[in-house]
Amino acid sequence: MKKRNLLYLFAIVMLTWVSGPPKAAAQDCAGYYLLTNDAEYELLNYDRKDKLTGRVQYKVTSINSSPAKTEATIHSKIFDEKGKLTTEGNYTVSCQDGSMLIDMRSMINPDMLAAYKNMEVKMQGDQMDYPSGLAAGQKLKDGSLTIDVLDKDSGQQMSSMVMNITGRTVGDQESINVPAGAYNAFKINQDMEMRTKAMGMNMPATRIQTIEYFVPGVGIVRSESYRNGKLLSYSVLNKMVK
């Protein structure tokens, strides 16, 4: 997989985001924006020179609730800078014990695996946790995702990719303005690393640092990716519709 595609994969991971509940309703899953039926929202993606590179639209299509857990199915559409639809699909988020959880397998853009369309792809990953009660200095759970590419006929492993998200640390709340409005957001820092092994050979690791501006009850209103301290790209919340 080309290096620029690995960086784009990291960007897609950042774009597939989850929302959190108001602190006053930590156990009330109805307080989560992404667990509101028919809710819609849109993100705009930019490069480091502020050039629009695409947008992502999301819509909640169904809600399933039980006394212990509430789960939503979300349909996503990804468009390029010219407004052309490049891919779409479904993923799920859930509310349990006052936290929003998302399976890391649902964060992968199918376009990133297009090169392996004639092979068997297996993915196994953790659930990313966004707790309801956030505080400066809080450490959040790490996450890991493994992608194995196998030859369909022989079952031989052709390549393996492991993505680790570590160092998830909550910073202070900051005032931030995005097209969707003004918010008071928690600043969450984290590190991402992708290690690839192809035909038994280890490839150089790709590492980036990300910052998420997270608003309880809304979600991530802005995210930024950096490499060696230099901005690579960022995304902002453009609009929300309930």
Automatic annotation (TrEMBL):
Cross-referenced Gene3D superfamilies: 2.40.360.20
Domain DUF3108 stretches: 41-237
Domain of life: Bacteria
Species: Pontibacter burrus
Record's keyword terms, sorted: Signal
Record keyword Phosphoprotein present: no
Signal peptide residue numbers: 1-24
The protein, known as: DUF3108 domain-containing protein
